[in-house]
Write a structure and sequence with these properties.
Elements (H helix, E strand, L loop, with lengths): L6 H13 L4 H26 L2 H4 L7 H35 L2 H7 L14 H13 L5 E4 L11 E4 L4 E4 L6 H5 L2 H18 L3 E2 L11 E4 L2 E4 L3 E2 L10 H13 L4 E6 L3 E7 L6 H10 L8 E5 L3 H4 L13 H8 L3 E8 H9 L3 E5 L6 E4 L5 E3 L2 H10 L3 H13 L11 E3 L1
Parallel strand pairs: 14-15
Antiparallel strand pairs: 1-2, 2-3, 4-7, 5-6, 8-9, 9-11, 10-11, 12-13, 13-14
Length: 416
């Protein structure tokens, strides 16, 4: 067996392969490589977790025991980070193959624990290889190679549609009417319906089985979930991030900062450098940030771990070296926007924040007095994907302008 690969080795091996994907063959071959590395990685994690110095560390006063414990924990941390990065590479394949809307639906079910030790995993791999050997024009991805595809075992794509495949290695489910299989079938049915809506009302969310409710003057009103196509050209700050990460990597002080357009602020900090708190405070003062102002703040480094429904870092328009530095946590990138910056961008579209100046502000449309509550997904795109604030404002404006006004007594408010 090969030695355990470090997080940086994972990135150096797979990011160039993602960058150069150009055929059905290469799309499947990178998955077979990911499978080999993931099997190796999970075996290493299992082995390290079983070590006595990890499970039952010795007395901290004994230097030898402490050294062994720290060494074992470091190896385990590297293996777990490598696994997350392998699955983040898988997320990149999913985003190349599928739409944002499909991925948002499929990521509603989160996965955890070991992948390659699960019952039925070998059958899923055989099914993927069978699809590959069919030599059609269609693509397929093994969902367990990703964070973001949580419904079904394999997702396929051909010229006509997206398909969901649930692989069974025995007839137990058929003979015993397995309730787990019934739940899986319901989830797949929901996702198929959710993904098939081009524009219009969506099926009720998996997370909202008990239904979301809100109040109006006439009593309790149920939310409707609706898909609206916003025909705008989105723009990102990725190239600015790339330059900043490279500067932080090489500068002696270990950090660099920049403004993001007219509104935002980004700081890149090398992980091996201690940034002086006074320096950071002076940087924040550049934006006149104080304890009385609302902020949208997030670290791009969290993407591989916490946000499977957002654009993966390997697909950012950044240099090869800067993507590796961020994904390997060698450089930490923090994006910050005062909420006032979003307020200004929205006001230029005739939209005004009137209350709830937190993560979900209420927006008033000047033209007809209609109100909207901005939920967290556009804000997460702002601070983690580095979507430009002008694009967020364009999205909100495009969506609000297409909302059906035939809502009767509900006209006073809606949610996006």
């Amino acid at each position: 067996m090969r030695h355990m690969r470090s997080p940086r080795e994972v990135l150096r091996h797979f990011i160039p392969r993602v960058d150069t994907l150009d055929s059905r063959e290469s799309f499947f071959q990178i998955q077979f490589e990911l499978l080999d590395w993931l099997i190796e990685c999970e075996r290493e994690i299992s082995k390290e977790r079983d070590k006595p110095e990890v499970r039952r560390p010795g007395p901290l006063s004994v230097d030898a025991n402490m050294d062994e414990m720290l060494r074992a924990q470091s190896t385990l941390d590297d293996a777990e980070q490598a696994k997350h990065l392998l699955l983040h590479i898988g997320d990149s394949l999913a985003w190349i193959m599928l739409s944002r809307e499909f991925i948002r639906g499929s990521s509603a079910m989160r996965k955890g624990g070991f992948v390659t030790f699960r019952a039925g995993f070998e059958a899923e791999v055989r099914a993927l290889k069978y699809i590959y050997e069919m030599r059609t024009d269609g693509l397929a991805i093994l969902n367990d190679l990703t964070h973001c595809l949580g419904i079904g075992d394999i997702t396929s794509l051909d010229s006509e549609s997206v398909g969901l495949i649930d692989v069974k290695s025995s007839d137990y489910w058929r003979l015993h009417r397995d309730p787990r299989t019934a739940r899986q079938a319901e989830r797949m049915k929901w996702l198929a319906e959710y993904a098939s809506v081009n524009e219009g009302d969506l099926p009720i969310s998996l997370e909202v089985v008990d239904e979301i409710r809100r109040r109006s003057r006439d009593g309790e009103v149920r939310h409707r979930s609706r898909r609206i196509v916003a025909e705008i050209e989105e723009a990102y700050h990725h190239q600015a991030l790339s330059s900043l990460v490279e500067e932080a990597s090489w500068t002696s002080q270990g950090w660099a900062t920049a403004m993001l357009g007219r509104y935002g602020f980004v700081c890149a900090m090398r992980a091996d450098k201690d940034v002086n708190e006074t320096d950071l405070n002076s940087l924040l003062n550049t934006l006149e940030v104080n304890e009385n102002r609302q902020l949208y703040l997030g670290s791009v480094n969290r993407l591989p771990y916490d946000f499977p429904d957002l654009l993966p870092v390997p697909l950012f328009d950044m240099s090869y070296q800067s993507r590796i530095a961020v994904l390997a946590d060698e450089v930490v990138v923090v994006t910050l926007y005062p909420q006032a910056s979003l307020v200004r961008a929205l006001s230029q579209k005739g939209l005004h924040v009137v209350e709830g100046r937190g993560s979900s502000p209420v927006i008033l449309r000047e033209a007809d007095g209609m109100r909207f509550q901005l939920m967290d997904y556009p804000i997460r795109r702002l601070v983690y994907e580095s979507l430009k604030v002008e694009s967020v404002a364009d999205l909100v404006n495009a969506v609000s302008s297409k909302v059906d006004l035939d809502l009767g007594s509900e006209k006073q408010s809606d949610t996006w």
